[in-house]
Amino acid sequence: MKNLIIFLSLTFYFISNFMQDRYLKADSESTTISSLKNTTKIVYLFFKVEKTNSGSEKITLQEKKITDGKLKSNSISDENNGNIGDFVISMTNADGKEMIKQVIEDPLNPTMEVYGEDISRKKISLQDAEFSIRYSYSEEIQMVKVEKITNSGKQLLFTQKL
Questions:
Q1: What is the arithmetic mean of pLDDT over 31-59?
Q2: Per-residue pLDDT for 111 more than 70?
Q3: Which stretch of 28-32, 41-45, 70-74, 103-107 has the lowest confidence by average pLDDT?
Q4: What fold is seen in the domain 39-161?
């Protein structure tokens, strides 16, 4: 009986390891994401957005910092969860394939908490603001693209090669 339990345990162990290796080799996107998670550097991109006289937004990349560290999770967010006015930041490789996508709440119209008798939320309008994103360093990431979610889809605001 003891030998049967040992035999079944070892068989289950080897089968599960074989299935895991097979799954990782078959799914190239999962392999790409896991390679991003295993890096030991974090990239920070700092942006500034300004509202122009015509009402459109002008975005500039102010700074790029690379530091040692490891992100706990890789931010791949669904742009369908974003609201109108939010920014979608996409990091792409040289072929244009999206590696990382993040949704940022509209920095020019943030929701602030107001403390008085009650705690309430109020949306304020700003002429300029700063925002940042972070991601795990990868040599594959070559370009950053910032788009704004609008009623008619997405509007491209900024593209730059890193």
A1: 78
A2: yes
A3: 28-32
A4: Immunoglobulin-like (2.60.40)
Nearest to 131 by CA among 146, 120, 151, 121: 146
SS3 (DSSP) at 74: coil
Query: What is the DSSP-derived secondary structure letter of residue 79?
Result: G
Q: Going edge to edge, which strands form the sheet with 128-136?
A: 57-68, 41-51, 128-136
Element (H, E) at 94: none
24: helix, strand or coil: helix
Q: Supply 14's token pair.
A: 């080897």
User: In this predicted structure, what is the pLDDT of residue 15?
Assistant: 72
Asked whether residue 23 carries a pLDDT value surpassing 80, the answer given is no
Do the Cβ atoms of 113 and 95 come closer than 8 Å?
A: no
Of 80, 86, 87, 160, residue with least CA distance to 123: 86
**CA–CA distance, 72 with 92 (Å, rounded to integer):** 21
Count helices and strands (H / E) in the chain. 2, 9
The Cα 100–Cα 107 span in angstroms is 20
* Mean pLDDT, rounded, of the chain: 81
Domain boundaries along the sequence of the chain: 39-161
